[in-house]
Fold this sequence. Notes:
The protein is α+β, with helices and mostly antiparallel strands. It has helices at residues 43-59, 81-91, and strands at 3-7, 16-21, 24-31, 68-75, 98-103, 114-121.
Amino acid sequence: xxxxxxxxxxxxxxxxxxxxxxxxxFVSGQVxxxxxxxxxxxxxxxxxxxxxxxxxxLAGVGANLSNVVKITCFLAHRxxxxxxRELRKKVxxxxxxxxxxxxxxxxxxxxxxxxxxxxxxxxxxxxxI
Length: 129
């Protein structure tokens, strides 16, 4: 079974950003870190970046947000839940994926307020005629 992995930046994290096995895509938890390594402190900005990073991780293995069938969100602060739900509705306006939201005591990066991981399914390749 061939496996395609999209490396994570920075490489020191030693994990794949996303992995594709046949038509299944598994995306590692994405946080609100910008490409330059900085992380804004406010929740709404972090959450938007999380979904931008999720979209980029999916694109790296030939998928997009419309392929997502399940997301798991980890929130460090209960008061961020309503804003997260509103953003999730905007990101997935039709046919939202199955979703779990977990309140955690903290994330690995102490400035992170949200982390989202995803599972996506690609359409099977159509046979040539």
